Amino acid sequence: MIRAMIFDLDGTLVKTEQLKAISYARAAVALCPHTITEAAVIEAFKDVVGLSRREVAIALVERFDLEGKAQQYMDEFGVSTTWQAYVQVRLKIYEEMLADPDVIRNNQWPHNMQLLAMAREVGCTTALATMSHCPQVQRVLEILELTNAFDFVATRDDVEHGKPDPEIYLLVSRELDVPPDECLVIEDSPSGVKAALNAGMHVVAVSTPFTRDGLHHLDDLDKQFLVDDPQTLPQVVADMFKAI
């Protein structure tokens, strides 16, 4: 029996993974304008989507040899590592993008938002488990008028280990007082799916252009619960409820 539905945020309810990819790409180009293209960084972002900010930044710094250029910003931002400097350059770009509420409103995933609304309508317990940090999460929820949509919200600030570690999902399970095997997670990224499965939860994976290939290569994911066509999402979720 499913008693709770837990939603990811970035890439699941909102296309913020796309916005994040663009911000990382623009930051990399700002550091190395003559050797890097936005398109190349956006493509590379697909390999790290869903990971923590630190993990994403380290991977991109190494992949695009940003060490030397990022080092020049360490004193300016008062940080100790090059990946932190890269993050600060990127955050300024990202925050400027999010300053316009219409950017968030225009980048919702309608099918997953509709699923959330349906879950609330039938009285299902709902929660949010995201690797974004609390201030950004609160801003997005306020813009989308979802501040009171969840019985519990867990962010990157609440856990020591990011996805694919199951910590954030186990935290949600404890706070909701719902056993993991009675929770259904809606995720878009391979790392998020792994985290939910590692927590012993049921998962419906809803792919995006950033995550489709990675999801199809997950051995532990039952592919009948992998959604590539948004129109099939309600039926796949219904099939999940019937299967349990």
Describe the structure.
Helix content is 50%, strand content 10%. By secondary structure, the chain is of the alpha/beta class. The chain has two domains: 4-15 and 104-243, HAD superfamily/HAD-like (Rossmann fold), CATH 3.40.50.1000; 17-100. The protein has a six-stranded parallel β-sheet with strand order 3-2-1-4-5-6, with helices on both faces. Helix 1 packs across helix 2 (38-45). The mean pLDDT is 95.
What's the architecture of the largest domain, going by CATH? 3-Layer(aba) Sandwich
Helix-strand makeup class: alpha/beta
How many domains make up the 3D coordinates? 2
What name does the CATH topology of the largest domain carry? Rossmann fold
Radius of gyration: 18 Å
Q: What proportion of the residues is helical, as a percent range?
A: 40-55%
Biggest sheet architecture: 6 strands, parallel
The largest sheet has its strands arranged as: 3-2-1-4-5-6
CATH-assigned homologous superfamily of the largest domain: HAD superfamily/HAD-like
Q: Please provide the ordered H/E string of secondary-structure elements.
A: EHHHHHHHHEHEHEHEHEH
Q: Could you tell me how far the N terminus lies from the C terminus, measured between alpha carbons in angstroms?
A: 6 Å
Average pLDDT for all residues: 95
